[in-house]
Records
---
Amino acid sequence: MSDAKTYTLQDCVKKIEDIRQTFASDIAQLGGQLQPRAVEDLKVKFLGRKGLVTELMEALKSMPKEDKPGAGKVINELRQGLEKELEALKIKAEEGALDQHLNQHRLDVSLPVQVRRGQGSLHPVTLMRRILLTEFRRLGFTVYDGPEVDLDFYNFSALNFKDDHPARDMQDTFFIADRAKTILRTHTSNIQIHAMLHEKPPLRIVAPGRTYRCDSDLTHTPMFHQIEGFVVDRGIDMGDMKGVIDRFLKAVFGEDLETRLRPSFFPFVEPGAEFDLQCVACRGKGCRICKQTGWLEIGGLGMIHPNVFEAVGYSSEEYTGFAFGFGIDRMAMLRYKLSDLRQLFEGQQDFLGQFPTYP
Ligand code: PHE
C-alpha cells in the first residue's frame, strides 16, 4: 500500500464501512438464486488470502501505534461478522440446492419399490447333468431315480459285495444312527438293483444323483454326484459297452478324443474296467491336469455279474448286460476348467453367476 503511512483509525473505519457496503451489494446482486459456489466465491473475495479484509489487516502494521489496538478491534469485529454471515449464507445456499434437487427429482414414497432382479444361472453340476442326459436320451436311454438313503441290500449285498468288503467300514460309508442296515448310498449303483427289481428287460437306463462317502480333501467332498448307466438285454456284449462309452464321451468332449478301457475290479461286474478319456487339455501329450499320462480317469464299468442278476431274479443264461458309473462333478470340472472341487458346493454367487442359464 503506497499511502500506508498515512493510514489512520479513521481511514480504517471508513474502509470497513466500504467493505460492508460492497458485501451487502454483492449479496443483493446474487438475489434469490443463492448457490453454494457463489457463497464460496464471496468468502474468497473478502476473507481469502488476498481478500479485502485480509488486506486491511496487512495495513494495520503501518498504522500509528496508538491507533493499532482500536483498529485491530474493529477489523476483527468485521472479520467475525462476515464469517458468521457467510456461514449462514452457506447453509441457506446448501438447503436451497437440496430443495431444488428434490423438486426436480420428485420422490413419491407411495410408489412400489423397484427391485433389481438379476437373472439366475444354472449350477455347473446341473449344466453337466443336463448335457449328459441329453446325450444319453439320444442313445435311447431312460432316466431313472432312486433313494439316497438306502438299505445295505441295494447298495452292497445285491451288488455282490461280500460281508467283509472294506467299503462297508465306517470310514467310507455314512451309516444312519441306530439302523446299521440303513446307509447313505456310496454310489448310484443301488439304482441298478431298484430298477431291475421293478422293470423287466430289455433295460436301457441312466440315473444321476447325489452320493456320499466319509471323505473330504481338495479333490473329495462328502457329498458328490454320480451318474449310473446300464443296459440289459439278450446278446449284449463288451462291444456294445465300449461303443456307448466312446459315443457319449466324444459327444460331450469332442469327436477327436480317444477313449480306452483298463482292467479293474468292482464286485458287481465281470470283467470290470475303468474307462479313460484322452486329456481334454493337452490332447494326449501329457500335462499337469492328466499328471503327464495323457489320459483322464472317468469312471468304472463292466459286464453285469451273474450274481447281480441272481439277486434280482433275472436269468443270467438268458440275459447279459453292462453297467457304468462316473462322477458328474469331476466331469464338470474338466468341462468348465475348474481347479477346486469345493467351489461347486460353497454357494458363492461370484463363482456361480459366471455360468449360463441353460446348456
Ligand atoms: N459304482 C462304482 C463306483 O462308484 C462305479 C461303477 C459303476 C463301476 C458301474 C462299474 C459299473 O466307483
Note: The chain has two domains: 4-104, 124-352.
---
Amino acid sequence: MIIAPSLLAANFARLEREVARASRSGADWLHLDIMDGHFVPNVSFGPAVVAALRPLTRLSFDVHLMCSRPEILLEPFAQAGANRITLHVELGNRIDPLLWKVRSLGLPVGLAINPPTPMRAIEPFLKKIDLLLVMTVNPGFGGQSFIHETVPKIQQANRWRVERGLSYHLEVDGGITDQTVTECAAAGADTFVSGTALFRAPGMAAAVKRMRRLATRAASHADLAPRTTARKPASLAS
Ligand code: DX5
Ligand code: ZN
C-alpha cells in the first residue's frame, strides 16, 4: 500500500517544514497537484517550486498534471525532479504522444480519469501506463467530499489489471479519509492520495500509519487477487 500525502493541503507559507513533516511521517510518495487555471478552476504551483523542494526530501514525487497544455510542462517537471508524471485522459487524442514524451524523459507515466468520464476512455491505454488514477472528486480543490459513485470505476480498473495480467498502480485521489480509504482498498486501490486528512491531522505519522493499516486490512478482507509483485515496466508498443 502506498500512502501519498498531497501537498495541496499543506501550509504554503511553510513549505520547507511541511515537506519535512511528510518525510518524517512514514509516507511513501509526496503527491504534487499542478493546476493551470484552465483545465481546472484553480492554480497551484509550478516546476520552480517543485525544484526547490527536491533537495529537502527523499520521498518520491508523484506529479499530477491538471493542465490543458501538458506538452510544455513535461520537461520542466522532469528536470525539477518528478519521479512520475500523471496526465488526464480527458486530453483526448493527444494522449499517445504525451505518454511517449514522458517515457522518453525516463519517467513512469500515469493516466487520470475524472468522475464523469467513462472508463472506456482509458481502456485503450492500459498496457502503456504505470499508474491509473481514478479521481474520486472533481479535480481542482482539496477538502471535497468523496464521490461514492466512483467506486465501480476502481473495481473495473482492478478487474482489468487482474484479467489482463497488468501491474499498474491503482491510485485514488480526493476525499480519502479513514472512512473512505476502506471502500477504495476493498475495490482494489493500492495507492492513496490524501491531502486534508493527512496534512491537517493532529499527528501526520499516526494518520499515515492508520490509513495504511485500514487499507491493508480492507484489501485482505476483500480477498483481492494478488497484484503481480514484480512490476513489469509498461510497454508503449500496442
Ligand atoms: C484534487 C487534487 C487532490 C487533492 C486531494 O484536485 O487532485 O490531490 O489535493 O485533497 P483532499 O485529500 O483534501 O481531498
Ligand atoms: Zn491530485
Note: The CA atoms of residues 167 and 231 lie 6 Å apart.
